[in-house]
TrEMBL record:
One of its GO terms (cellular component) is ciliary basal body. This is Cilia- and flagella-associated protein 157. Residues 39-137, 201-315 form a coiled coil. One of its GO terms (molecular function) is microtubule binding. Belongs to the CFAP157 family. Keywords: Cell projection, Cilium, Coiled coil. GO terms for biological process: sperm axoneme assembly. It is found in: Cell projection, Cilium.
Length: 446
């Protein structure tokens, strides 16, 4: 009966110490420092994110300055474009009005010149024709007068001959007188006709003088027309020069239009670049927001990992205190049935301890055995247990090596053959729980 009492006493002391350990939990829950690798890893990530954030901020500022410059240049180009278009329109309208006025003046001058030229040509032809007619008429009249003079001279010669013959021939005097009278009558008639011809000649001479005066006037008008023609030719040359200048101005206007179209294309290209820069700025702002969200998430993960580490350290402190309480129970040398009754109970307590540590590290959805139900279902009752003491520390090592208290997925509790420190670059590919278990498994022995 003595072993049962000792076992019951040991169970009571274990429960009392467990309660004391449970009361000491808030005192032991001190926030321990992080491992050096994790600190360096998170510091590197934070510095990288801060550098990327500063780089994105600088790039965003540069893009904002470029956008402002592009906007100012675009507004300046738009104003210049409006001014150039207005100036070109004004100059073009003025030049078109001048060209139309000059064309109308040129057409009017050409018409007036042609009309005057036709009139002077008609008048000159008429004067030439009249002059030729008067010249022909005067030549014919002169020929007739010469003939009459010759006839008169012949008549005078004949009269003298008749007078001489009357002296010589008395018989024929009467007949000669008659003939002379007839000739005198004829001569009177011829003289009358000569007087008429003389008067007509004088009239023709006066007409010739008038025609000469008209010819002189026509020559003077022709000279004036020649001078006007030279002036008109000079005006035409000036108009042609002005037309050439207007054509040059139109060419310059076309070149300005081409330049304006190029400026419009450049402005459109600047608008497209501005839109691209805006989209790039929006993308960078989205990336910046995403980086900020990642930074907050990493900070939250760091806080969670610190909490999990503190909870794990508290659980380890409790477990060590629990194991120390178990190891402080010394068995009596006189008890012979120690191996029969105490080993199952010891295994059960160790399994409860490992289950408690596993549930502290990773909460599983599987149904874990409650530490208060297993002693009631598998272990003997407190009254039936023998009052034996625990063996020494050296006898527990082979018994713990035979127990496999872990399950697949319980992180940080699987024994390893060698101590392998984790690589921070490889830990980026792992999940949150796996990283916590890996760091805790390698930092707990230290």
């Amino acid at each position: 009966m003595a072993p049962k009492k000792s076992v019951s006493k040991a169970g009571k002391e274990f429960e009392v110490k467990k309660k004391k350990g449970g009361k000491k939990e808030p005192v032991v829950a001190v926030e321990p420092p992080l491992a050096k690798e994790t600190k360096e890893f998170y510091h590197i990530q934070i510095r990288d994110l801060e550098d990327r954030l500063a780089r994105y901020q600088r790039k965003w500022d540069e893009l904002a300055v470029q956008e402002k410059l592009f906007r100012q240049e675009f507004e300046q180009l738009a104003n210049n474009k409006k001014e150039i278009v207005a100036f070109l329109k004004r100059t073009l309208n003025q030049q078109v009005d001048e060209i139309t006025d000059l064309n109308e003046q040129l057409q009017n001058l050409q018409l007036a010149k042609e009309m005057e030229k036709d009139a002077f040509e008609v008048q000159l032809a008429r004067v030439r024709h009249e002059f030729q007619e008067t010249k022909d008429q005067l030549t014919t009249e002169n020929i007739i007068l010469l003939r009459k003079e010759i006839v008169q001279r012949v008549n005078l010669v004949t009269n003298e001959f008749h007078k001489m013959t009357m002296n010589w021939m008395s018989e024929t005097t009467r007949r000669a007188i008659k003939e002379n009278n007839g000739i005198t009558l004829q001569m009177a008639r011829v003289s009358q006709q000569g007087m008429k011809l003389l008067r007509e000649n004088e009239q023709l001479k006066g007409r010739q003088d008038n025609l000469c005066k008209q010819l002189e006037l026509l020559e003077n008008t022709q000279k004036v027309m020649a001078r006007h023609k030279r002036g008109h030719e000079k005006i035409i040359l000036m108009l042609t020069k002005k037309c050439q200048e207007q054509q040059q101005d139109t060419k310059e206007a076309e070149e300005l239009r081409l330049l304006l179209s190029q400026l419009e294309q450049r402005s459109l290209q600047l608008q497209v670049d501005n839109q691209a820069l805006k989209s790039q700025r929006d993308q960078l702002s989205l990336q910046l927001e995403q980086q900020q969200v990642d930074l907050q998430r990493l900070q939250q993960e760091l806080a969670n990992e610190q909490k999990v580490r503190t909870s794990l350290e508290v659980a380890l402190v409790q477990a060590t205190s629990f194991l120390q309480d178990i190891l402080q129970m010394h068995p009596d040398e006189e008890d012979s049935d120690f191996d029969v009754t105490f080993q199952p109970w010891q295994k059960e307590i160790l399994q409860q301890l490992l289950v408690m540590l596993g549930s502290t590290v990773v909460p599983r959805p599987q149904k874990a055995v409650c530490p208060h139900q297993e002693p009631q279902s598998h272990g003997p009752p407190k009254e039936s247990r023998p009052s034996i003491q625990l063996p020494r520390t050296g006898s527990l090592l082979p018994q713990l090596s035979d127990i496999t208290p872990y399950q697949p997925g319980d992180l940080g509790l699987i024994p390893r053959q060698a101590h392998i420190p984790p690589n921070p670059q490889d830990l980026r590919l792992l999940s949150y729980i796996t990283r916590v278990g890996t760091f805790w498994a390698h930092s707990s022995p230290e």
